[in-house]
Backbone:
């Protein structure tokens, strides 16, 4: 969430930047400013009263030593009254602080200055593109038909076992999944990311720490008996490893990668856009997460983008990078770059990664800080990215690499799959 310091320093600038995200922040921002004034006034009154109580305690001791019992009792009565006043102030302070927190949780992150204005995906900006565009014949099959032809994925069986959006991978389809996961993890390890294996369920504090709660309750599977949530991405448990932590200056940066299954309730629309692997409720993904000093986070963002680009180049997929406009960005992000790959049979771009810098928005919720060389504690910056999400990668690989002899497997995966063609 936004810091009070950021809001108080220039509330009009915050309101102006929030408008880039198509969010009208005037009312909540000005309410926070007013409540914070009330909070600080109440805190000052509380501190002044505490100082008075200390003096009164010393005064009572002196009067008792001098035998002035009546005067001491009169001061004791004043102490009791002042303590009651402080109790009322504490209640007022708590109510004010709770209201401030509730409002701050409802305000999205301020977009970075490089974020373009816009409302929808149509306003996103293509920054860069590359990779060979396949030239398939008119008889090219979409991945869901290829999956059936080569017995790689059974969508109907997944519906039987669970429901729509939960496919069953079979034989070489399952092997391809495992190969991609291992390839992505090995590449992340080579890039200096420390692998972790996190839980797939998190508590409320973890969901709140990374911004899934209270913004995305409806998109998360909720185990109500234990009040746990199935993770929508490994970002949630991995970033929460640093909740309530003060890192030493020389411990940064922190670079982690993790494979996990991901669970999302989002229903989406009907038709080709969600057919096959295009939109699932359960899917596999390798995530990279970084905790950085503020002055280093945008250089880290560029490194992460280069890492994802390198994966797509090794897979031989046509790709482009989008700089998301304000209206198409997530609630928590300061800036986001989406990577999309070209699906030759579907003739459309498929999103396979989002790489984002959250600046202090998550770390303020998490209380993730570091102690600088001057011994002062400051909030870290958090970043994450998909490296990569598997379903649409698999869709593009199957479609783009189909030949009359079968489906070619990219060379970088063959040592993991043990085969070079699916036939």
Residues:
């Amino acid at each position: 969430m936004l810091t009070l310091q950021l809001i108080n320093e220039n509330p009009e600038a915050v309101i102006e930047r929030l408008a880039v995200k198509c969010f009208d922040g005037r009312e909540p921002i000005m309410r926070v400013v007013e409540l914070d004034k009330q909070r600080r006034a109440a805190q000052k009154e509380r501190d002044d009263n505490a100082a008075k109580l200390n003096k009164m305690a010393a005064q009572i001791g002196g009067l008792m030593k001098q035998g002035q019992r009546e005067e001491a009792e009169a001061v004791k009565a004043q102490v009791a009254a002042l303590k009651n006043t402080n109790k009322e102030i504490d209640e007022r302070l708590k109510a004010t602080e709770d209201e401030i927190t509730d409002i701050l949780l409802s305000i999205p992150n301020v977009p970075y200055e490089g974020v373009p204005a816009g409302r929808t995906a149509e306003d996103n900006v293509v920054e860069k593109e590359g990779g060979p565009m396949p030239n398939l014949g008119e008889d090219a099959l979409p991945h869901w038909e290829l999956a059936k032809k080569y017995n790689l994925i059974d969508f109907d069986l997944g519906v039987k076992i669970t429901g729509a959006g939960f496919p069953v991978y079979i034989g070489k389809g399952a092997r391809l999944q495992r190969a991609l996961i291992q390839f992505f993890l090995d590449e992340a390890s080579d890039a200096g990311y420390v692998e972790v294996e996190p839980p797939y369920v998190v508590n409320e504090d973890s969901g709140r720490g990374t911004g899934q709660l209270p913004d995305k309750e409806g998109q998360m599977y909720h185990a109500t008996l234990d009040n746990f949530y199935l993770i929508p991405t490994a970002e949630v448990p991995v970033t929460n490893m640093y909740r309530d932590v003060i890192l030493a200056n020389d411990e940064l940066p922190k670079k982690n990668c993790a494979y996990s299954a991901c669970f999302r309730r989002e229903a989406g629309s009907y038709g080709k856009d969600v057919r096959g692997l295009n939109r699932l409720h359960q899917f596999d993904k390798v995530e990279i997460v970084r905790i950085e000093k503020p002055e280093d986070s945008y250089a880290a963002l560029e490194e992460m983008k280069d890492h994802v680009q390198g994966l797509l180049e090794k897979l031989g997929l046509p790709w482009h990078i989008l700089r998301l406009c304000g209206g198409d960005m997530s609630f928590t992000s300061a800036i986001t770059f989406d990577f999309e790959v070209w699906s030759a049979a579907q003739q459309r771009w498929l999103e396979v990664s989002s790489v984002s810098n959250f600046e202090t928005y998550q770390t303020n919720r998490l209380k993730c800080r570091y102690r600088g060389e001057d011994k002062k504690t400051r909030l870290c910056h958090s970043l994450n990215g998909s490296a990569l999400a598997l379903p649409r990668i698999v869709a593009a690989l199957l479609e783009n690499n189909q030949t009359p002899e079968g489906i070619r497997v990219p060379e970088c995966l063959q040592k993991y799959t043990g085969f070079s063609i699916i036939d």
